[in-house]
Amino acid sequence: MDVRAVLSDIETAAQQHGWTLEIFGRQGEFNLFALHRPASIGPGHPTRLYLSAGIHGDEPAGPLAALRLLRDNQWPANAELWFCPCLNPMGFVVNRRENPDGKDLNRDYRHLETAEVLAHVAWLERQPRFDVYLCLHEDWESHGFYLYEQNPDGGPPLAETIIEAVRNLCPIDPSEIIEERPAQGGIIRPNLDPRTRPQWAEAFYLIMNKSRLGCTLEAPSDFPLRTRVNALVTGVNAALMSFNPGSG
Ligand SMILES: [Zn+2]
């Protein structure tokens, strides 16, 4: 993936469709940025949705899905959106999971030891709470698509809706153990309190500080890139629609 070209295309698509771009940090030659778009119609309180991608530099499907979603521009009208489409651009330059210092940014959201995550969290702290978050990833070891759902209050889940939509175009990982955690039908529901964990992924920070519902989507890297991007785009769209019944 040519990350410079993809980021340029993301900025162009965002500008064309009414997003504002905020630079919150720097990584090597790249600006780290977030996109924001207000709800396009205003009856009642907008649904606040946060999306992120590209924190692992060997997972190109995330930023490519971000680009597709921005170009398609099919967002629920009552949705206010925040989108961080590429949190580790230097990782993509060298096709490596970690940042240039060899740190996995997606393990740094508890102690904030990297400049990238420190800047990202500082930006997140300036935003309102989100009704739902979606983090876009790939997994190099999985046998199909799967996801994590965090839903500590036991509200209406999103996971099944996403799985059922993705199933039509990408196999779902049937394993009963994925990443050392019990899974069922491609769904992992982590039930450990993040406070018991020494390291936090972005999703743990989000569930502790910004949202009470969200999913981490994992597309299987063994499958063609087109399939992985389609799976992530379809999963996001399914989640957005289910969270905004009657829209679209
Ligand atoms: Zn990842």
Report a brief summary of the structure:
By secondary structure, this protein is of the alpha/beta class. Helix content is 31%, strand content 22%.
Q: How widely separated are the two ends? A: 31 Å
Q: Tell me, what's the shape? A: globular
Structural class by SSE content: alpha/beta
Gyration radius from CA atoms, angstroms: 17 Å
Tell me the number of strands: 10
Order the strands across the largest sheet as they lie in space: 1-2-4-3-5-10-6-9
* Unreliable spans: none
Mean pLDDT: 95
Task: Characterize the biggest β-sheet.
Answer: 8 strands, mixed
Strand content: 15-25%
Helix content: 25-40%
So how many helices?
7
Distinct small-molecule ligands in the complex = zinc ion
Task: Note the run of SSEs as H and E.
Answer: HEEEHEHHEEHEEEHEH
Name some characteristics of this structure.
31% helix, 10 strands, binds zinc ion, 248 residues, two-stranded antiparallel sheet
Q: Please, could you describe this protein's structure?
A:
There is one protein chain. The longest helix is centred in the last third of the chain and has 19 residues, at 225-243. The chain is an alpha/beta fold. The chain is built from seven helices and ten strands. The model has no long low-confidence stretch (mean pLDDT 95). The strands form two sheets. Strands 1-2-4-3-5-10-6-9 form an eight-stranded mixed beta sheet, with helices on both faces. Strands 7-8 form a two-stranded antiparallel ribbon. Helix 5 (159-166) crosses helix 7 (225-243). Helix content is 31%, strand content 22%. It binds zinc ion. Residues 56, 59, 137 line the site of zinc ion (ZN).
